[in-house]
Amino acid sequence: MTTAREIMHTGANCVQENETLMDAARRMSELDVGALPICGPDNRLHGIITDRDIVVKCLAKGKDPAHMTAGHLAQGKPITVDADADTEQVLRTMQDHRIRRVPVIDDHRLIGMISEADLARHLPEERVGHFVEEICR
């Protein structure tokens, strides 16, 4: 049984909820990623911010990314998977919520992220194809 811990990429960098969207965008650019976890002062996961969130929820509404914080976009309880979840559970969670990346949690702490690219590297091609069909419909 392959677990989330085995397919995730480690070292997920958090943007703090009090950091600006400009800071978040710069970090995404430096790391060449399209999403960052949002963490609070307790270093616990409070949400996820995507490059699309910055464009749609800030720029398109005429707001200033140099003043709006990541915490403004942290909405609701983030969808996560446990580090010991098997890949079927990971896929089911991502498909059920139609998300392309999911944080991996161990002992209530963020330890990594799983993206579509991670799935493509670790799962059979037909399984990844079915996943992409499900979340893109």
Automatic annotation (TrEMBL):
Species in which this protein is naturally found: Streptomyces roseicoloratus
Record keywords, A-Z: CBS domain
InterPro entries: CBS_dom, CBS_dom_sf, Diverse_CBS-Domain
Protein name: CBS domain-containing protein
CBS domain ranges (all copies): 8-65, 68-134
Keyword Cytoplasm in record: no
